[in-house]
Amino acid sequence: MLAIERHDFILEKLKETGRVQVADLSATLKVSRMTIHRDLDALAKEGLIEKVFGGAVLRSEITRKNQTGVCAVCDRPVSVHTRVVLHLEDGGQLEACCPHCALLLLDSRDDIVSGLAVDFIHGKMINLKTASFLVNPDVAVCCTPPVLCFADASEARRFQLGFNGQVASLRDAQKLTTQHMKLSL
Predict the structure, then answer these.
(1) Please, what's the b/e burial string for 79-95 (b: 16 or more CB within 10 A of its CB; e: otherwise)?
(2) Are residues 109 and 93 in contact, defined by beta-carbon separation less than 8 angstroms?
(3) Which pLDDT value is given to residue 63?
(4) Where in the chain is the domain with CATH 1.10.10.10?
(5) Are 178 and 145 in contact (CB under 8 A)?
(6) How far is CA 160 from CA 132, 149, 154, 172, 174, in A?
(7) Tens of pLDDT along 63-118?
(8) Cis amide prior to 77 (ω within 30 degrees)
(9) What average pLDDT does the segment 161-183 reach?
(10) Is the pTM of this model over 0.70?
(11) Whole-number mean pLDDT of the chain?
(12) Cα–Cα distance for residue pair 114/97, rounded to 1 Å
């Protein structure tokens, strides 16, 4: 049996039972326990399961969406250069890999009370409400359309001179991003 077939089998078992044991999988699939451990490591690395003592459990979508370092929209790793942190009413946080994904979250949720984003030039955290955004510049950063965040509107306009795009406030950037996403469906 190929590794991909074992992975599919393991995921199916997890969906059925919620938990699998290394010893049981080893006996059922007629492979060594070490092979099962490697399979579980691969699935855990993909974020699909969580290894526990003696086996694994299925990671829920909610757990994956709220884990640190993973975008709550597109599941991409969160980069320190384009990171956005959104604060929720209940005291929780969501991370977005880029301002584009953060704007989509702002448009789709009403429990977000504040947010901080990394300034594209200086790398410092800034308040989303006071930030300026450059929407759809000729820079491939992460998601499409690209959205860059700046602490200062004049820096966003200077960056725009070389890379095009549209300088916008938070509200306008939200509208532009949402419109682009609806058009691309």
Answers:
(1) eeebbbbbeeeeeeebb
(2) no
(3) 46
(4) 3-59
(5) no
(6) 12, 12, 10, 16, 18
(7) 444 456 888 888 888 888 899 999 988 888 899 999 999 999 998 888 999 999 99
(8) no
(9) 90
(10) no
(11) 89
(12) 16
Task: State in words which class domain 3-59 has.
Answer: mainly alpha
pLDDT at 48 exceeding the cut of 50: yes
Instruction: Please tell me the distance from the alpha carbon of residue 59 to that of residue 51, in angstroms, as a whole number.
Output: 9
pLDDT-derived band at 128, boundaries 50, 70, 90 = very high
- Maximum separation of any 2 CA atoms in the chain, in Å: 65
Residues 79 and 87: beta-carbon distance below 8 Å:
no
**In contact, 135 and 176? CB cutoff 8 Å:** yes
Q: Is the pLDDT of residue 151 over 90?
A: yes
Instruction: Sheet containing 19-21: give its strands across.
Output: 19-21, 55-58, 49-52
CA neighbours closer than 13 Å in the CB half-sphere of residue 66: 10
The label of the residue with tokens 């989303």 reads 128
Q: State mean pLDDT over 40-60.
A: 83
DSSP H helical segments within the chain, as ranges?
3-17, 22-29, 33-45, 61-66, 99-108, 153-163, 170-183
Closest of 106, 113, 116 to residue 171, by C-alpha: 106
